[in-house]
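A protein record pairs a chain with a discrete description of its three-dimensional fold. The following entry can be read in just this way.
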Amino acid sequence: MPTCSAKGCRAAAVWVLAWNNPKLHTPERRKTWLSCGEHREHLSQFLGVRGFLKDVVELDAWVQPEGSER
């Protein structure tokens, strides 16, 4: 079972946060963090402030684009 990417959290992941660092990655590339319900907002804000967050999708609905990685 996939777990949350927040430091120290072992809860089941419910969300996929797709992100991209434009200084390092091509525009279509997506890296992912997984999140439980409790950490979704915190992780989204962390990525959003840096301009990295591209999408937040429920784990069950996530279709990993080609070239993406966790």
Notes: The helical segments are 40-49. The first helix runs from residue 40 to 49. The chain has a mean pLDDT of 92. The chain has one helix and three strands.
